[in-house]
Amino acid sequence: MGKFRDSVDVRALRFAVGFPLVLAAAFVVCAVLLRSDLPEPLAVRWAGGVAADFAPFGAVVGVGAGMIVLFGGAVLVQAVPLSRPAIMRRIMMGTGLFVSLFVTTVLAAVLVGQLGLANAGEAQVDVAVLAMGSGAALGLGVVMGFVFKADERWSTDDDRAMAEALARELDPDLARDSVRLWVHARSSVFVMLGIATLLPAALLTIAVPWLAALLVAVALLAAACLFARIRVDRSGLRVFAAGFVRVMDVPAAAIEAATPKEVKAADYGGWGYRSHGTTTALLVSSGPAVVVDRSDGRTLTVSGGSATTADNVAQVISRVAARAHRPGGAAGV
User: Which of 74, 113, 140, 195 is a good FRET partner for 131, with 20 to 30 A between their CA atoms?
Assistant: First the structure.
C-alpha cells in the first residue's frame, strides 16, 4: 500500500474518481426532475434527421450515468501516476474534465430536445444546449489543464541538483571554474546570407520549388555553422558546432595553455569548423578568439565573442588546466 501511495498523486486520484461520480449523480437527479415532461420511451439515435432507435427512461439515464463515470474517469485517471511527465498529467487532467462535461452535455441535449413531447419520434437533439455546453466543457478543460498543479516529488534530477549545490558550497571556487558561452557571426553576415539564398529561393518558388527548398536548406545549414556553444568546467573544454554537434572535447589534463588572441578566419581556411594537420579551429567570425595548446602538440582555436569574454574563457581554461596538473587535482563535477 505504501508503494502505491508513493507512485500516485492521491489528490488527483480522488478527483478522477469523485468528479465523474458527482457529475453522474447530478445528471441522474436532473433527469428525474424532468421525468414528468419526457415521453416514454426516449429517442436515443437519429438517422436522416428522424429518430430511429428508442429506449426506456431508466435505461437512458442509467447508461448515460455509466458513460459519464466510465469515459471521464478513464481519461482523468491518466493524470494520477507520478511517473508521467508533469505536462502530460496536466493535459490528461484537462482532457478528462472536458470529456466528462462533454458526455454530460450530449445527454442533456438529448433529454432537453424531448421535453414536452408526447411522441419521441418527433424529438431532435437540442442544438443550443449542445453548442453552449460543449463550449463551456472545452473552456473548463483548458482552464483545468493550466491550473492543475502536478504533485512534485523528489527525482534523480533533484539528486543531481543537490549534489551540485553541495559541491559549490564545499568549494566556493567551483563557480569561477565554469563558463558557458554562445558565439555567433555578426548580424550583417546573416543578412547577407539571407539576401544571397532566401531572396533567390522566393523567386524560384513558383518555377522550381525543389530548388527553392534546397536553397532554404543550404541557408539554414550555413547559418547554423555560424553558431557555436562553448562549455568549460573542471573536466575540460567542449565546443559544439551549431550548438549541439560536439567538435572539440579536450580533458583539462590535456591542456597546456590557453591565450586570447585576435585572429582572421581566412588564416584558418574560413568560417566554420576547420582541421588541418595539428590545427583545429571553429570560427564564426574574425576577431577575438581563444587559442588552446594541447600537451600532444595540437592547437585548438575557437571564437570567443568579444575581447572580454575571450579573455575570461582563456583564464578559466588556464585555471582548470593548472588544477588538473596538480597532484590529486583530477576533474571534479
Answer: 74
Q: Rounded distance, CA 123 to CA 117, Å?
A: 7
* Element spanning 242, H or E: none
Crossing angle (nearest 10°) for helices 10-33 and 86-112? 0
Q: Are 151 and 82 within 8 A, CB to CB?
A: yes
Give CA–CA dist 310/8, Å, rounded.
49
The answer to whether 101 touches 24, Cβ cutoff 8 Å, is no
The CB density around residue 18, as the number of other CB atoms within 10 Å, is 12
Q: Which residues pair with 249 in a beta bridge?
A: 238
Give the closest residue to 258 by CA, choosing from 301, 291, 306. 291
Please confirm whether the linkage preceding 41 is cis (ω < 30° from 0).
yes
pTM (2 decimals)?
A: 0.51
* Nine-digit cell string for 170: 564545499
pLDDT for res 331? 46
> Which phi and psi (to 5°) does residue 301 adopt?
-130, 130
Give the span between the Cα atoms of 284 and 281, in whole angstroms: 10
Residue 129 confidence (pLDDT) above 60: yes
The rounded distance, in Å, linking the Cα atoms of 163 and 154 is 13
Neighbouring C-beta atoms of residue 269, cutoff 10 Å:
14
